[in-house]
Amino acid sequence: MSFTLPDLPFARDALGDFMSAETFDYHHGKHHKAYVDKLNAAVADKGLSGSLSDIIRQAKADGDKAVFNNSAQHWNHSFFWQCLAPPEGQTPEGKLAQLIANGFGGIDAMLARLKEEAVGHFSNGWAWLVLDRDELRITSLHDADTPVVYEGMKPLLTLDVWEHAYYIDYRNERPRFAESVLGNVINWEFVAQNLDGEGVSRADQEALEHA
Ligand code: MN3
Questions:
Q1: How far is the CA of 102 from the centre of ligand 1 (A)?
Q2: pTM of the entire structure?
């Protein structure tokens, strides 16, 4: 039984200088792939079964840090790629725009708050926009930790703030990375879709049986 590295939902060079093909070669092709490979080795070794989200939750309950870290990072990255889209001047619309206006006063204020969370997050982790009951909330989680294991955190949008996410294109400048990516290459249609509370399922995966 094994999990697979999902293809990027766009060409490797589609985000231009905001996130370069070289970054995707490393971040998707090497970092994300390594989490999948390590997860598959653990799945085989320990005879684990179930969907990716099942394995994440079980590893959390069992305190199995190695399986949790690799499975959660596989899910986090699979979700993150879908949060991105080529720069075409996209902005939130409809119900999402309304919720952002209600919760933060508008898109600029929301993005400033999300950037602040991303930049202020100490060391490795992920900044999140989540749906908590009927309200938008901004938070961040450390290392591989993931909304998959938390009630009241329906994932809408994430930004990877591990240094491997930005070092090639932005060197050590996390603030410039956060501002640039959040302001230009977010897939707001995907974010809006997740208002149905089913965001976890969009990066979930059933393991494939194979010889
Ligand atoms: Mn990463």
A1: 31
A2: 0.98
